[in-house]
Task: inverse folding
């Protein structure tokens, strides 16, 4: 083992030990102190806006030198509006009900025992993310709200922005009298630190990767601790024959173009032949007019302005102003296509037919299913969670947007009266 790896392991061991101590205190911290810490962090974010923007400018210059893609640059970039949104997210998380200590269920047994199932923090979270400095605040806030300590490992491109945001989070902790080690960040770009986090059994209780397919695949392959993750956001929009054309036009355009580089962006448009018979190629033309490259097959491939799709364009996360498009015969063919090519992230059906919508909802098992709504709503903040730490597409424990409530487990509290078996 080389010195770099040993140094990274020593660093993670030190951060992990401090985090475990902090987690033990956070587990019984009052809702009022956690609320105060988050409000204090939100105030610090706005008070230190200039310092955060200066740090972000350093990161943007570094990222530009490295040739980051436009989508990744967009994820990295902060401005006054985005900083306000981060601060608002902190306040929204602060105002959420405290998820710790809730009685999830309780019952009495014939043997005289009274049993309660009560929510409890997971412990120490490890969050690994790419080029998204806002995740520093989101992850820190949700971890704190749920009584967990967190070790953050941001992208190499966002290290200065993340450090500036971390300072604000720790200022909130300081003001509330909570341990500073509750929210920590790996302070080096060394990728060996990621490997050390993935192997930190006994120090980190769950790893949450937030980034592209390469990062998530690496984490899922190498982690020795549990992982909450989604590999890709291959989101579909299906325009049913009974769709309202005005609603469909609004939703399709928003689902693809609002932000193309996020996991909730639509990557495939399925158009029912009955819809096309009634409304022509209006959805395709809207996308083309908005500057989207439409990769189409079959009859749609002859629509002027489209380009022929390749086989691997279906089931592909473009994260760009590109969408695959295909005609289908009815909802069952749409469902079959999504099952074959989807990633179980988010799918939307556009229809006024209740029975068709019910069939779509019943027969697909993606983490999020929508009707007459943009896939860009696949976001914890939009779900009323204040923020999210990611979207999980697995089927164990957390699924869909992972907010504070999903970052808890539970324990059983059993009360007897000298009861013996």
Result:
């Amino acid at each position: 083992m080389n010195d770099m790896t040993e140094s990274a392991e020593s660093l993670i061991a030190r951060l992990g030990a401090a985090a475990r101590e902090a987690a033990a205190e956070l587990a019984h911290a009052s809702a009022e102190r956690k609320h105060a810490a988050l409000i204090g962090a939100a105030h610090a974010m706005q008070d230190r806006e200039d310092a955060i923007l200066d740090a972000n400018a350093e990161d943007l210059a570094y990222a530009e030198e490295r040739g980051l893609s436009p989508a990744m640059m967009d994820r990295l970039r902060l401005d006054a509006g985005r900083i306000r949104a981060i601060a608002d997210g902190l306040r929204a998380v602060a105002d959420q009900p405290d998820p710790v200590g809730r009685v999830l269920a309780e019952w009495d047994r014939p043997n005289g025992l009274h049993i309660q199932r009560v929510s409890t923090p997971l412990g120490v979270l490890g969050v690994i993310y790419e080029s998204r400095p806002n995740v520093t605040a989101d992850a820190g806030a949700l971890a704190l709200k749920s009584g967990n300590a967190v070790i953050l490992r941001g992208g190499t491109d966002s290290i200065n922005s993340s450090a500036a945001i971390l300072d604000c989070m720790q200022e909130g902790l300081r003001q509330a009298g909570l341990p500073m080690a509750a929210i920590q960040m790996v302070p080096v770009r060394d990728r060996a630190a990621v490997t050390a986090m993935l192997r930190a059994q006994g120090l980190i209780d769950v790893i949450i990767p937030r980034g592209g397919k390469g990062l998530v695949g690496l984490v899922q392959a190498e982690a020795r601790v549990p992982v909450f993750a989604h590999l890709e956001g291959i989101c579909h929009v299906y325009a049913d024959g009974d769709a309202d054309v005005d609603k469909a036009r609004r939703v399709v355009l928003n689902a693809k173009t609002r932000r193309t580089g996020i996991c909730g962006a639509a990557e495939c448009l399925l158009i029912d032949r009955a819809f096309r018979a009634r409304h022509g190629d209006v959805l395709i033309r809207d996308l083309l007019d908005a500057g989207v490259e439409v990769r189409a097959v079959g009859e749609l491939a002859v629509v002027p302005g489209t380009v022929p799709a390749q086989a691997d364009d279906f089931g592909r996360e473009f994260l760009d102003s590109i969408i695959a498009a295909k005609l289908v015969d009815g909802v069952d063919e749409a469902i079959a296509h999504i099952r074959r090519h989807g990633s179980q992230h988010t799918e939307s059906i556009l229809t006024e037919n209740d029975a068709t919508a019910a069939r779509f909802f019943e027969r697909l098992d993606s983490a999020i299913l929508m009707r007459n709504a943009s896939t860009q709503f696949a976001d914890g903040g939009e779900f009323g969670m204040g923020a999210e730490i990611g979207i999980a597409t697995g089927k164990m424990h957390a699924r869909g947007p992972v907010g504070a409530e999903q970052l808890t487990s539970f324990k059983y509290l059993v009360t007897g009266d000298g009861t013996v078996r």
